[in-house]
Model the fold of this input.
Amino acid sequence: MKKLIYFALTIISLGLTTSCTSDDNAMDKGTTTNPDTSELKTKVLEQKVDNYNIVIYSNVKEFYAPSTTPILVEFTDVDNPNNKDFSDAAMSILMHMTMNNGHKMSHSAPMLQLTPVKGSTNKFQGEIMFSMAGMDLEKNYWEITLNAKNKEVKIATKVKTTVKNGIFYDRNNIDSIQGSDRKTLETFNVDGVKHFAAFHLSNKYKVGNNDIAVSLYKKGDNMGMTFPEVDNLIVTIDPRMPDMVNHGVLEGIITLKYNTNTKQYEGKLPLSMTGYWFLNLVIKNAAGEIIAGQPVGKDSDGKETVNGDKFLDLIF
Amino acid sequence: MILKNQYITSILLTLPTLVLAQNNQDTLTNKALEEVVVTHFSKSKNLVDKKPLASVDDYLSKQENITLVRRGAYAWEPMINNMAIERTRQTIDGMQIFHACTDKMDPITSYVEVNNLDGMDITSGSQGSMFGATLGGSIDLRTRKLTFTEQKELKGQVQTGFESINKQKIVGGNFDFTSKKFYASGSIMFRDADNYKAGGNKEIQYSQFRKLNASGIIGYAINTSNSIEAAVIYDKATDIGYPALPMDVSLAEAIITSVKHTYAPTESWIDKWETKLYYNTITHRMDDTNRPIVPIRMDMPGWSDTYGAYSTLSTTIKEKHHVSINANTYYNKSLAEMTMLSSTPGSSNMFAYTWPNVKTNYGGLTIKDHWQIDDKNSLMLSGTLGINFNHVSQKGVDQLGIFLNDNTFKQNKTRTVGNFAINYERAENVWFYGIGVGYGNRAPSVSEGYGYYLFNSGDRYDYIGNPNLKNESSYEGNFFLKYATPAFSTKLSGSIFYLDNYIIGVIDPIYNAMTYGGLGVKKYTNIDYAIQGTLDWNFTYNIDSNWKLSGGLTYSYGEDSNKNTLPFIAPLAYRTSVDYKYNAFRTQLSLKGNAVKNNAAEAYGEVRTPSYAIVDWNANYEFHIKKQSLNVGIGVENILDTYYSTYADWNKIPNPGRNFFVNLSYKL
Done:
């Protein structure tokens, strides 16, 4: 009988031995993925107003154009760090230009208004579609007007910033991927009216299906001060990896669907691996006629390597 | 979840064991049958060969029911009844070890060396191994066994060899020390080979390899019936070329460790009770660094770690039932990744997990009863019931979610697996015959369930795993008929398998290929069924005490439910040999070949294979020098320098041409 008990105990202990070896967090053995760029942790601008300190964070060190740039605005009370009850944050943006003849002009750009960051009362997130560069804080610059409330105290300030010219991937030069800025804002004309395709900040990209959203805006009739959303076009994306023989994704061309609630064109992007993804953009009218971009074409070897001139891109 | 599952498994393991053990308590007989002759149970002899320093692959290739898929000069993939690792069970001393390469470039048989091994146990069909469910059969490599001796004994030998075809240099040695309370043994072997040459002196690029293997065993006798043993095998192969594949292996490294307790009482109902705890870890680095022109440079390392334990109890009931009970559990973690190095300097590399950290827990119970009904009749009953649990990382769920646009794919999956077989045998003077039936049920392998873009250079498709696969099951029938007299013996045997829900890659036309030059994507799918079978005939004729003639024929069959031939089904194969021995001198001339294979598995990327036949010769002599001896083995393989490739040569890489070898073993 003693032996029986010993045998039973042995068997049980065998089962337990292996149960102690589950190490669920030991996934990553030396991955080579790029750092995630969707987090808004880089401090770009800082300004003091009265006893408030306002910091603007983004995912880039320096604003560039054209781009759809996410920002996170954080308000703090310098005198009382516990005072975090901020509300009604809103921004407006203006590009100030000085012409060669000294004439001054200004216009706005599309944007996503600030909204509170979930679980926070002093952080607000939005997006600015910088449509052009301006590198002179006296003559050519962008100005972000910020308004908010701290309890009943109104806060208002203007923050000036330069925006550099973005350097983007040139589809005729594969080496230009290196050091390029992400293409998140594309422009095109419909009947002589300037339109914008803005690629919204996604959560962290993963190998798998990713939710993506693109907004279309057009220049309003009032000298570039408003940018109404466009809901009657068709947005298609053909994701490609130019530095990997321009291979595509499983489904081929993806057509985004317009969501009337978010006023964005939305869809799933199946990214089969990490790396540089060129999103070949083709915009069609309601009749299905191409009005901007070209589908990926074949080269002289019959391989689909000729990308169109309108695109968005991402690296992860 | 993992924890919970293992508790369930442990309980499952314990209950039937207790019940069974209770019933046997009064039985005092303990005489185990020394030799168990079972239908189709080909218990291989010790690793004694005319070519003592042949590779483990060479030994395997000479075994009944075994064929090998060859991707180069190293690490051939064993198949039993034309079934690969997913459908068979391959273990080393009962230890589960899982290969770490997504492309099967490191079968576990590549992590041992001939001087680690005493022999191998090979079984056919679902009566399979003691170590878990199987459909096609099992291979258990038996490592060296030592026993305690009254006197202190020290034995050793040094070995060296050379093969002309790839300038392979072999050097090694081993020792055994035994005493009353303690034993120890150690071995080391090193092989270094250049590219081999195919028939007609054509050099096969990227067929080199280098391998170092070392092992150690220590044993201690606690008392007359209890002993404990610790063993370790270390194997490191570097710079391995795979001429059939677009990539090579810079490192394949394994550490295999175990601790074993053996209880072998003299006066007890227990004949033998062995319990083992083990751990092994494999690192496999596949890359294309040595290939001059590739569309995209790739690194594809893989890792496989396994922890496990088993306990086997053998007993004899009423002198007729020879019962073995085995409780077996293991945990495996398989992770492999693919990095495509961007051709653009400074650009980010492309990365994905080809095995997205897949964890497998298995717990099972196997019972075998060899029932010697009377002098003529015997029955073999065997069964396994086990639980297989898989857990895959969230990244794996995300990746494979691209292909499964629904929410049916969960991180955890539990499956019940098992097999059952019954074999009847009868001996009548010089006639022996037997029939058997079996059932087996298996879980999908890591690649079949969770693989991600596994490029198969044979059919040029990328393979995608499918976690929602159903278990594959097999219904098997087998028979043998043997006539044996001291002078002449002959045996006809066969097996047929009906494989329900057969798992194989099926083209998914929606998807593009990802790999450069690929034709598309295949998703692992359960097809309706497949049928496989083998029929084998062999004979041995001892002409006189010096001369012996032997030979045989094997026919294999395999078709899926759409009448497509399955991949890697052997064509008609034949072999014959003449042996001569005189005192310590032995020599053999042999011929082996395959008929033409016209029924290539075209649906699975195979092409026709022409017939071939090759002739080998070897000789062996043992010189005794006092108490020491020198064994000299020489031979010529492929004497006619035939240029040929077989159906099992991946991408039809040609086999080695005429090879002269010399093997020397000096026993101290």
Q: What stands out?
A: The domain at 42-164 of chain A is CATH 2.60.40 (Immunoglobulin-like). The first helix of chain A runs from residue 2 to 19. The mean pLDDT of chain A is 86. The radius of gyration of chain A is 25 Å.
